[in-house]
Amino acid sequence: MNADYYLKLKIFGDEEQIKGMLEIVGKYDETGIQYFRSVEVNEKSIDFSNIPAEVIASESVIITAKGPYGDYYELNDVSIFRDLAEAFPQGKFIGNIDGCGTYESQSLDCELKDGMLYINTCFESSEGAADAWKEDVMEKLPLEKFNKLYKIKGENYNEEDYKSLWGEIGCLGGDWASFTLEEFKDCLKYYEQETELEEEEFEKIQNETISELGIESFDEFESCYDGSFEENLVYDPVKKSYV
């Protein structure tokens, strides 16, 4: 996956823990199925195969990086935090990854304490907005009411056709109230349907009735659409399973 995500990780511990955790982080530096770029430790690039003594001697270090990149869907699919916890279950760290892709934004917060890895993951997506918008419109303006309001004439026009019609309107911008009568007629032709509305009648519906029914344009609907979910998890690094 290619997206604009960023890692921030603060690890605590003795020299063995600091060195060991940094070596694990190093395995994700530009390599692997999932990997990070521009990895820095305390705001400096380091050679993970020869970690400076002064870094190892620190009580805590801060790692920052761009990514992750590679093969994953949700951020919790990325295994770096679980790898750190499994290697040092009695260690301690606080980590965060957040950012956004083309259709979604995600964040992942992790904390290793008292032998458990506590995970909070949040995923927000607008990918389901189009289907949700169609369902909202069809609930406010059911097929039977639509046919009567717009004086539709024709046969074999069913719910699936009606849903498909709103999908087409969405692809044309989704601002139904701004459609002209000619644009509406063009949409109906595909379904072998016609409208008996005159221009004045149509404009009155578009300018007044659509608003009264609470039907929003797709852009208005999408701006308020909540396609997010949040999950809190606890991972046991010794048993290598979620509690």
* Helical amount: 25-40%
Rounded mean pLDDT is 91
- Spatial shape: elongated
The helix-strand sequence is EHEHEHEEEHHEHHEHHEE
Strands, count: 10
What is the oligomeric state here?
A: single chain
Low-pLDDT residue intervals, each spanning 5 or more residues: none
Keywords:
243 residues, alpha+beta, eight-stranded antiparallel beta sheet, two-stranded antiparallel sheet, 9 helices, 10 strands, 30% strand
Structure write-up:
This protein is α+β, with helices and mostly antiparallel strands and 243 residues long. The chain is 35% helix and 30% strand. The strands form two sheets. An eight-stranded antiparallel sheet has the order 2-3-1-4-5-6-9-10. A two-stranded antiparallel sheet has the order 7-8. α1 runs antiparallel to α3 and α4 crosses α6. The two termini are 28 Å apart. The model has no long low-confidence stretch (mean pLDDT 91).
The gist of it:
The chain has 243 residues and is an alpha+beta fold. The chain contains 9 helices and 10 strands.
Topology readout:
Layout lengths: L3 E9 L2 H12 L7 E8 L11 H4 L3 E11 L9 H8 L4 E9 L3 E10 L2 E10 L3 H12 L2 H7 L2 E2 L5 H13 L9 H9 L4 E2 L3 H14 L5 H7 L3 E9 L4 E2 L1
Antiparallel strand pairs: 1-3, 1-4, 2-3, 4-5, 5-6, 6-9, 7-8, 9-10
Helix pairs in contact: 1-3, 4-6
